[in-house]
Design a protein that fits this description.
Layout (H helix, E strand, L loop, with lengths): L1 H31 L1 E2 L5 E4 L2 E4 L6 E6 L4 E11 L2 E6 L4 E6 L2 E6 L6 E8 L3 E2 L5
């Protein structure tokens, strides 16, 4: 009977040790994470726009996270971002609460989606 308790004790201690290692590793990673530029992901009900790190290209994804389109950022200000798709002749405006779309022939943006910029954490080594 004491051998069984000893075996259970070893298993119990092993599980505690594994848990402690996992917790300490994740806290080290969490300490490395920093909030980055808040204008790199814009989310709406049907998908999102995302700008990869060190790029001026924006990727549009649908709600299944399938790539839909690519845009080049052409201007940025605290009020928003304008990007353009040369192939389709479309421009997209991303603001804090709404996005707009226009063709090259149009002077003004038409409302496209309600959404917002999403905060992103960078947990990379260089972050």
């Amino acid at each position: 009977m004491s051998n069984r308790l000893t075996f259970q004790g070893v298993i119990h201690m092993s599980l505690i040790l594994i848990l402690l290692v996992m917790i300490s590793g994740s806290s080290i990673l969490a300490n490395r994470c920093v909030a980055k530029d808040t204008m790199t992901v814009w989310k709406h009900d049907k998908g999102l726009f995302r700008k990869p790190k060190h790029s001026n290209i924006w990727l549009e994804y649908n709600s299944n996270y399938e790539l839909v389109a690519t845009f080049k950022e052409i201007s940025r200000s605290p009020e928003g971002i304008i990007m353009h798709d040369d192939e389709r002749g479309l421009s997209i405006l991303l603001r804090s609460d709404v996005s707009g779309i226009k063709t090259e022939e149009e002077a003004n943006f038409q409302q496209l989606y309600h959404g917002s910029f999403t905060k992103v954490a960078d947990c990379s080594e260089e972050g």
